[in-house]
Write a structure and sequence with these properties.
Largest sheet of chain A: 7 strands, parallel
Helix content of chain A: 40-55%
Number of strands of chain A: 7
Largest interface: A-B, 43 and 43 residues
Shape of chain A: globular
Structural class of chain A: alpha/beta
Low-confidence stretches of chain A: none
Number of domains of chain A: 1
Oligomer: homodimer
CATH architecture of chain A: 3-Layer(aba) Sandwich
CATH superfamily of chain A: P-loop containing nucleotide triphosphate hydrolases
Distance between the termini of chain A: 48 Å
Radius of gyration of chain A: 17 Å
Mean pLDDT of chain A: 94
Number of helices of chain A: 8
CATH topology of chain A: Rossmann fold
Order of helices and strands of chain A: HEHEHEHEEHHEHEH
CATH class of chain A: Alpha Beta
Strand order of the largest sheet of chain A: 3-2-4-1-5-6-7
Chain lengths: 220, 220
């Protein structure tokens, strides 16, 4: 199985080159792009649903959703007010890659948008290895997943630019040690900007929206 | 990238051959083995912690835990009463494979055990593609993950022999449509045996234990 390593490296190099091309297209059009990653069910789609109404008068938003199957997520993004919502079905693939995003960008007139939200496949491992060309990587953690996830999935926590800790409304019902969680995060990614919030109740969402809008404005 | 496919196929074939060898070793020793898979944080380790005390007088249990990093899970299994607990750290790998289990089996005198519990890496995609040689595959879903997961991760739901739906104590606080979830499961895997339970409160755990013990007895 020694033949496996060079092939994987070649794929990653090809992916990174295409990610740079995606980035150049986004920059040329003045579009700020985020790559949202998380475990299945941490609340990526719920976060996008909560976010879109806040941006209604501030930014024109396209959403690209990656899933193994179904268009549930893109349908939800469109219903929540995305000006465009594209679903990528990966078949069996456990992550999005730059080729898939390239295909999605081909379906969009980027000059019509200020913000591109990419929702990756629910997976705390593989998406971390594949650059897409987006400007910021965002991880959505959630309280019910447990406080040990930074320790067990260090690659994901190490590589992101912002952390949303979702479902804080469930803290009273779950043994989640916020100190232990935060220590794990800080060891991997010191000063990572973190937004504790609840997509269900709306608590904490404003700080997240402010950060996102500031980034969009800085870009355009 | 067309060269990629045959290499992956070769790896899977090699994996399947070694999985068959693992199965033969388990059978020769009279050990019943389960492969527990789930999203990160669905409650695989909690399920093992809840299960082990119920088996104390009934079966000698070894636990093999797969994680990207840390020995948190194996430590928890040992504390809960596993006669042996082995931690596999996969480095960056997003799943266990038959080679890794083979290495773990080499560290165990299988004649000392009746049941082997393998806890896979938290991931709802990749582990479904790699046979280990275990007798039954078990998926732990959890209420906070959301009711759309069977639709979005069909490969995992299609391939398992039993389904644990954990964290039912959180049903009052979450919009989880059990009918929608169950319809999705049934479409992919009709008559899949399902155990709704809460590792936190212990509700529903008995039916799961009964099923597991029956399988262990049938095997030995």
């Amino acid at each position: 199985m020694t033949q496996r390593i060079p092939v994987v490296e070649n794929i990653l190099n090809a992916n990174d080159r295409l990610a740079e091309e995606n980035r150049a297209r986004l920059d040329a059009a003045g579009v700020f792009a985020v790559n949202i990653m998380a475990s299945p069910g941490a609340g990526k789609t719920s976060l996008i649903e909560q976010t879109l109404p806040h941006l209604a008068d501030l930014a024109r938003v396209a959403v690209v959703d990656g899933d193994i199957a179904t268009s549930i997520d893109a349908d939800r993004a469109a219903a929540a007010g995305a000006q465009a919502a594209i679903q990528i079905n990966t078949g069996g693939e456990c992550h999005l890659d730059a080729v898939m995003l390239h295909g999605a960008l081909n379906q969009l007139d980027l000059t019509h948008f200020d913000l591109l939200i990419v929702e990756n496949v629910g997976n705390l491992v593989c998406p971390a290895s594949f650059k897409l060309g987006t400007h910021k990587s965002i991880l959505v953690a959630s309280v019910p997943e447990g406080d040990d996830k930074p320790y067990k999935y260090p690659g994901m926590y190490r590589g992101v630019d912002a952390l949303v800790v979702n479902k804080i409304d469930l803290l009273p019902y779950i043994n989640f040690r916020m100190d232990f969680f935060t220590s794990g995060v800080q060891a991997l990614n010191p000063n990572l900007i973190t937004f504790p919030l609840s997509c269900r109740t709306g608590e904490g969402i404003d700080a997240w929206i402010d950060w996102l809008i500031q980034n969009v404005k800085r870009k355009t």
